[in-house]
Design goal:
alpha+beta; Lipocalin; ten-stranded antiparallel beta barrel; 3 helices; globular
């Protein structure tokens, strides 16, 4: 059985159970077509056939990927990545190389990223820098119901799951998200962060992280993606 069929069956089953529960409640309370009975969902009673049809149409509308999702196509592909990390704004950034693979998943609803690079351990404390393997995974899409772009990210540099919400510029070239990030080494929770992706052309885009808790547009990470030929 396909997953979508299973989910639709679950939703319809849940709706049927809800209707049955409401009907039993009305019978118990002396409802029905008399006082308070058959008023529809807006009247506190059982949804009528027309309202149920509208509910199903709304659900189907929010399920389908659309034009907003197509703007994420620019991220799809295999990329060489160059990562710059600023530990001290007065000092040059640490620089590492890596790769990224981005592909559509869940029938075009999300782009999944598989990221592999290195992280400069020791740069933060001023000690000897040693690059260690750094792996990350992300999901990015568009929420039809909330009318906003959404994403989540996890990697081997911690156990937190980062989430973000945002918008695209009118030309579809810049995506700006906001979220929160903990800093365990500073014992800080919920620092406000801005994430921004700018598409330079079909073969190049730049992802930047700004720590807004440290200052307006305080850049801490910049990742340049160059499409593999």
């Amino acid at each position: 059985m396909k997953t979508r069929t299973l989910i639709c069956g679950f939703v319809l089953g849940a709706a049927s159970a809800l209707i049955g529960t409401q009907a039993l409640s009305q019978d118990h309370d002396g409802g029905g077509s008399g006082a308070g009975g058959g008023k529809g969902a807006s009247g506190g009673g059982m949804p009528g056939p027309q309202e149920m049809q509208q509910m199903m149409e709304q659900m189907m509308k929010t399920m389908k990927p659309g034009e907003h999702h197509k703007l994420l196509q620019s991220s799809v592909g295999t990329w060489d990545v160059t990562t710059k990390i600023w530990m001290d704004p007065a000092a040059p950034p640490s620089l590492t190389k890596g790769t990224s693979e981005c592909k559509w998943v869940l029938d075009g609803r999300f782009v999944m990223e598989d990221f592999k690079s290195e992280f400069p351990m020791g740069a933060m404390t001023g000690g000897q820098v040693k690059n260690i393997p750094w792996y990350g995974m992300g999901l990015f899409g568009y929420d039809n119901f909330r009318n906003m772009y959404v994403g989540c990210w996890a990697d081997t540099m911690g156990t937190q799951l980062l989430t973000m919400k945002g918008t695209a510029s009118p030309d579809g070239k810049t995506f700006t998200y906001y979220g929160e990030m903990d800093e365990p080494e500073l014992s800080m929770i919920g620092r406000t962060v801005k994430y921004q992706t700018k598409y330079i052309d079909n073969d190049t885009h730049v992802f930047t992280i700004y720590d807004l808790a440290a200052g307006d547009n305080y850049k801490v990470v910049e990742v340049t993606y160059t499409r593999k030929k």
